[in-house]
Design brief:
21% strand; 4-stranded antiparallel sheet; alpha+beta
């Protein structure tokens, strides 16, 4: 866990574990682009994205929920958009870096969005596995520790609700996906097969049936663990498959409520709050501080798919921008920057050892391993280190 006053190293790939999942510069740049190009509509979208970004951050990094908040997307000419407007600034595919996993992520998503755009398809599943993020910079030293199971449910002919589920290693996800696709398990051992080949369902009921009966048909005796949230906190919780299925079934029933809900009024947002990085950043810091006060905490654990950080003072902790590109900073479930916030470095000279107690200062930290020595980010003391197999 990263202490609040840590000074980040220069190597940006190595800082992925230490950042706390926020890119205020890119978010501010994106808001300015939206307002400059789309006027009042752009202001509304920018305000909505700020609101969505903060809600998503609270859900994923503070509460560490296994399932994302639902996102509504709109289909036009076979492509998905985050707003009911056919414009490049809200096109979902623009938020995916073309070289992530050698382009396979983007190509797999393009097939997936075709399903979400097809009036004959009612639901779909797509899986991005754990493993190496790509062969080219900045992905060549990045490793995704956990998988992401993406699901959409159609709510109208051109609207769909999207969410994702964090999948820890150990859950039989290949059996699940083979069951979804009616494939024999021996047909492919490629972990990226379902990144390339999303799965379509003609009826929502077909997907819900398979979700409910997966363990029975696969002869899995226990209720498998999907994800452990807040795993280093007093509020840690194990999320089993039966719970995930129950929550997905409720999300599938959002059609009526989503379509009748009144639009949110964002008139209380100022332009400066959207386009100035410091004010964008302050929104997150204030949210952390308020949560700590409300729950009586002196430390706040921030979680991602694989990262864990500790903040003791939200108004002093460092926040670093790694990919300051507006296209990649959307609150889209599929954006590259979102996935990069839950990754660890595979730099051969720099690594991390998470959640260890420093023998010098007795603090629980994410220690840095550099050139054969383990270094405490709190007290800066170090000791020889060798990895045991």
């Amino acid at each position: 866990m990263v202490e609040a006053k840590i000074k980040y190293p220069d190597n940006k790939s190595a800082t992925l574990l230490q950042k706390i999942g926020i890119d205020p510069i890119a978010q501010a740049l994106r808001a300015r682009l939206l307002i400059d190009n789309l006027g009042p509509t752009g202001f509304y979208i920018a305000a909505k994205e700020k609101d969505d970004n903060e809600k998503n951050y609270f859900n994923e990094f503070i509460n560490d929920e296994p399932i994302s908040l639902p996102h509504k997307y709109y289909a036009y000419d076979g492509e998905l958009y985050s707003y009911s407007l056919k414009h490049a600034l809200v096109k979902i595919s623009k938020s995916i870096h073309p070289t992530e996993r050698g382009g396979r992520t983007l190509e797999g998503f393009r097939k997936y969005e075709k399903f979400a755009s097809d009036p004959e398809v009612s639901a779909g599943v797509w899986y991005s596995p754990s493993g190496k993020a790509g062969e080219k910079t900045p992905f060549d030293k990045i490793f995704f520790d956990s998988g992401r199971l993406y699901i959409f449910f159609k709510t109208d002919k051109n609207q769909s609700i999207h969410l994702d589920i964090k999948i820890n290693d150990g859950f039989p996800v290949k059996k699940l996906l083979d069951f979804f696709a009616n494939r024999a398990s021996y047909q492919s051992d490629d972990p990226f097969y379902y990144l390339d080949n999303p799965i379509e369902f003609k009826g929502v009921e077909d997907l819900l049936f398979k979700l409910k009966h997966f363990t029975e048909y696969s002869k899995i005796q226990n209720d498998p663990v999907v994800y452990i949230s807040r795993r280093h906190d007093k509020d840690s919780r194990i999320h089993n498959w039966s719970e995930i299925v129950s929550r997905l079934a409720k999300t599938a029933g959002l059609k009526t409520t989503e379509n009748t809900k009144s639009p949110t009024n964002y008139s209380n947002f100022s332009v400066d709050a959207l386009i100035e990085p410091e004010k964008v950043e302050y929104g997150y810091r204030y949210m952390m501080s308020r949560f700590m006060k409300q729950t009586g905490r002196t430390q706040l654990h921030l979680y991602g798919c694989s990262t864990t950080s500790v903040v003791t003072n939200p108004f002093e902790s460092g926040i670093e921008s790694l990919i300051s590109q507006p296209d990649l900073s959307t609150p889209s479930l599929y954006s590259t920057s979102r996935r990069m916030s839950h990754a660890r470095s595979e730099d051969k000279n720099t690594d991390s050892l998470n959640c260890v107690t420093c023998p010098f200062c007795n603090q629980l930290v994410d220690a840095t391993i550099e050139n054969g020595r383990i270094v405490c980010p709190q007290c800066k003391e170090s000791a020889p280190y060798s990895k045991t197999e």
